[in-house]
Amino acid sequence: GGAWQAQPTARAVWQETLKLVTAFTLSHSLTLTVAVMGWWNPPDRWVESLIALSVLLTAADNLRPLLPGPRWVLVAVFGLVHGFGFAGALHESGLLGEQLLWPLLGFNLGVELGQLMLIGITLPLALWWRHHPAYAWVAVRGGSVAVAAAACVWLVERSTDTTLVAWVSRWSA
């Protein structure tokens, strides 16, 4: 590994993004379905701690690549964990079994639409800015450090059931 490197073309950026979004979507959809249907529900503390850890590892990997393999594989693994996290919102609805089919599909579609809207706004801006010298320092490094710091707080809070920074906890709830 080494420091972050810009993809050579905008097309390469869009292709990589499509791979990552597809991997995350398929994997979180799988575990969201598993959890909502009641086939397996790992403890919330584990799931929330692993979500925070996945965010921390991704931010650290942005600073200096440290995770092995193609990034889409890791995103898929992290998506499995996030799917269990998304299931919590649907569990609170009180619906069971087949009653959950339409809410599950609607929730999953809502998550995907939100993700696509965020990408549709931020990716063109990042593509416009990515060759400017400040991009690597401000967006990639600065953004990754900020996300890693928040993820550290979330990881400690979720794994120990404590509150370290009240405003960070409210923001991440």
Write structural notes for this entry.
The protein has 173 residues and is mainly alpha-helical. The chain has helices spanning 10-36, 44-63, 71-91, 101-129, 133-160, 166-172. α2 runs antiparallel to α5 (133-160). The longest helix is centred in the middle third of the chain and has 29 residues, at 101-129. It is globular. The two termini are 34 Å apart. 17% of the residues are buried. The mean pLDDT is 87.
Detail the topology: elements first, then pairings.
Elements: H1 10-36, H2 44-63, H3 71-91, H4 101-129, H5 133-160, H6 166-172
Strand content: under 5%
Tell me roughly what share of residues is in helical segments.
over 70%
Which segments are poorly predicted (pLDDT under 50) over 5 or more consecutive residues?
Answer: none
Gyration radius from CA atoms, angstroms? 17 Å
Q: In terms of quaternary structure, what is this?
A: single chain
Summary, kept brief:
The chain is an all-alpha fold and 173 residues long.
Features:
single chain, 173 residues, mainly alpha, 6 helices
